[in-house]
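Please supply some protein, with fold tokens.
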Amino acid sequence: MAMHLVLALLGALRAALSTRSDLILENLALRQQLALLRRCSKRPGIGPLDRLFWMWLSQRWARWREALHIVQPQTVIRWYRQGFRAFWNWKSRRGGTGRPPIDCQVAKLVRTMALANPLWGAPRIHGEILKLGLDISERTVGRLMPRRVKPPSQTWRTFLQNHVADLASVDFFVVPTVTFRVLYVFVVLLHHRRRVAHFNVTESPTAAWTAQQIIEAFPHESAPRFLLRDRDSVYGAEFRERVKNMGIAEVLTAPRSPWQNPFAERVIGTIRRELLDHVIVLNEGHLRRRLRSYLGYYHQSRTHLALEKDAPEPRAVEPPDTGRIIALPQVGGLHHRYERRAA
């Protein structure tokens, strides 16, 4: 009986204290609103401290909605959520989060390469960066490059991928000279490592001349299994007979379908964009020397997307402790190769 009496007294005391606490908080809420209304005669200006007060009160008093009259309860809830987001945004920025900073020397090197080689895009510059032993992503290289307007890169796909190691392509392209003559360039391309096995220049191509170029391109039984070409009449009976005697099977593209010979078309486009669009050809000898210089750069220095950003003649990766970075002008300074040299 005594225990029940004690529990009843404790319950009454708790109810009295709870009622007094609610009364204090209600008076506090009403006084805060009155003070807010006295600040201005028109619309009350609710400041950050007022918002913090109501956010605090909503967490301490269950009946806070009954005493709130100047704004809607949903507004206070919105303030609380905004404060929650602001708090955690502030807290997350205090630590060392985000991407690691880029070394200023690396950023300067990327900009220097981009300015010295205006024909290069981010993949080409990234290939050179990898050869210098620097760990940086291609996306970062693109972000560090100076902004410039450039056409979208081409994409193409071969229909003979299963025979890429045994496949070669041939094609002609024309080059005008300063005296308005037209020269014909014959190119023989090996698909496996994107190597130009042979090239030559003439003013009057014939079937006999073209057949001789095939012999010079593949001496000592080094001929591929398949030869991809178009239906140009220059590949006459003498050319076809010579190719057949060498054990090469010809694969002909459809009429007016250059996209069916993508490897040769791509290398010809590369030669035009990276060399011929930037020089004036004087004569046949001058064109042959310029092509020989460019193909040396093409095989030994230029990185290729299809070769996992390596050159047709593989280049070794030079670690940073090898030495400082130097630029080697190639193709008359139109392109550069970057290497490390000991001081």
